[in-house]
Amino acid sequence: MNRKQLENYIPAGQEIQLIKMEMGHHAVTDRVMGSLKEFPYTLHPIKVEGIQPEALDKFEALMARLKRERLEVEAFITEVEDSRIRQILTLRYMKGLTWAQVALKVGGNNTDDGVRKAASRYIEGGV
Known about the structure:
By secondary structure, the protein is of the alpha+beta class. Helices cover 63% and strands 14% of the residues.
């Protein structure tokens, strides 16, 4: 896992939301006539909704890739054994806090430079 992958966690989530909104713009609707299954078999209109297949394929492929990338980051952070480092990575890369905010949340007289360097050392494999 590298820093770029970690930093892409929040933007990937935002892009997933944008894709969901965009999918709504590619929705198609129609009305068909149908009847009840039982007597009196009354004819009534039924609204049918969906997404154009070519747009759906494109959106699903991109969303699957973004979700996979996010899951990889979550798995990486979850597997960190050091609780302090796990907290730092979660707060910074998954919650989007600044280094100063991370230092305050972690507590223990940590500085923004201290938590940033601890995260960098871990990510670069120097721990």
